Amino acid sequence: MWQQWLITLRSRPRGFHLVTDEVQDALPELASCRVGLLHLWLQHTSASLTVNENADPAVRRDFERFFRRLVPEDATGFEHCDEGPDDLPAHFKSSLLGVQLQIPVSQGRLALGTWQGIYLGEHREQGGARRVLATLQGTAN
């Protein structure tokens, strides 16, 4: 079984956002997969996907603080600044964290750990809606 969908995640402010439920809700066909893999590909260069803590929102706030310090907007010496001061830092953050995830599927559910969730890292002040191409491969129930 191979299936593919384009998911549009709603626009969010800069920061790290838990999107696990939004992704799962867009894929009701997951329920028919006994065992498989879900590949998520974010079609943007100024946002990212990662898996981390799903319970304490302080973790997501700390992620944002860390990455703002790691890749500051006021750094000098870079050429690409056509779209504002958050543009090139957003590209750096996207490359550091990545734009794809591969998550196991077991008995019709994402096989995430108890405290794991899918984060969208929104690295722009005005990033807008984000598109994720979701590809499911596996064995149907």
TrEMBL record:
It holds the Pfam family YjbQ. Signal peptide: none annotated. SUPFAM superfamilies: YjbQ-like. InterPro entries: UPF0047_YjbQ-like (IPR001602), YjbQ-like_sf (IPR035917). Belongs to the UPF0047 family. PANTHER family: UNCHARACTERIZED PROTEIN YJBQ-RELATED, UPF0047 PROTEIN C4A8.02C. This is Secondary thiamine-phosphate synthase enzyme. It comes from Phytopseudomonas seleniipraecipitans.
